[in-house]
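Reviewer 2 asked us to include a model.

Predict the structure of this chain.
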Amino acid sequence: MPAARISQRISAIAESATLAVDAKAKALKAAGRPVIGFGAGEPDFPTPGYIVQAAIEAAGQPKYHRYSPAGGLPELKQAIADKTFRDSGYKAEASQVLVTNGGKQAVYNTFATLLDPGDEVIVPTPFWTTYPEAIRLAGGVPVEVFAGPEQEYLVTVEQLEAALTDRTKILLFVSPSNPTGAVYSPEQVREIGQWAASKGLWVVTDEIYEHLTYDGVPFTSIATAVPELGDKVVILNGVAKTYAMTGWRVGWMIGPADVIKAATNLQSHATSNVSNIPQVAALAAVSGPLTAVDEMKLAFDRRRKAIVAGLNAIEGVECPTPKGAFYVYADVRALLGKEFPSANGPVRPATSAELAALILDEVEVAVVPGEAFGPSGYLRLSYALGDEDLATGVARLQDFLGKAK
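Predicted model (structure tokens):
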């Protein structure tokens, strides 16, 4: 029997559902189809001009044409430490920062550095699609803890306690959340963090949406709120969402010096340094004002209210109002099994994946099904797209989903 061409480890990785939906939508658009894409979590704003200008100037400097330290430009690492203290009150040294090729590399580096085979990671669910794949690649076991719309997609300490085993090593904590937009209150953050500390767990906290909260809801860093965690916390972040820099690919992890040293060693063999030009752009971003994100928030807030109202007007759809990020997570379980018209005759989608595929085929609206983030029965829509596209897309959904029988 011939050996498999692809390793079991890599064959087991699921494709990024969000990127797959976005790619299909863009391919259809390129073919001239009027597709509205709610798939990718990507601001529709350009990167602020002063950040772009910093990159242009850096490109002309020969020192940035060479290798730089694998862990990041020293001045950027210091600026990230300063920015973290400014924004969340968490004090870190530059030596505790590793600059990565986007937030995803920070996620993988962290789990690869902390996990041994069989170690368990508690993953509040719905989760961002990359988390469980990165955990599995690192040899770990993701343990899903599901919180539905009836509890505003927020897990409780009681649920976490029920998931705890003698193999649990890490609690993953994400607030504001992708994909649900849920935000934990300061009291909930402290309660969960104190529970993790009492169990001796590591906490990995993804704070990439820290500046995107609404309705006066504060962002609370679990690393700051729960000093009892000590040196068993790792912060993940990046410039992608705050500064509309998804394509620049600069993220980072902040953690204990020994963890950062080990993760830097891993990165030195995997990718070496992040491209210097985006690093200089990121330096301009984190060192500069938050004016750009404040302006984006006004648009996101307007779109958030519009999409929630539009979706809740559809019979069979329940869409809680998110308090952060730029996603809504709509409960469509009541629509599954209903009959919908299609070009090939009536169909009855049994899962949210089938419903999402039907929506794309019939009315050319791209949404991401709940299966990408946990259980079936939900649709994630990003409202980080233009107001006109959002209104058109919601109108198409209202018309099509309203035909369910």
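The CA atoms of residues 28 and 93 lie 47 Å apart. DSSP finds 14 helices and twelve strands in the chain. We have added this to the supplementary material.
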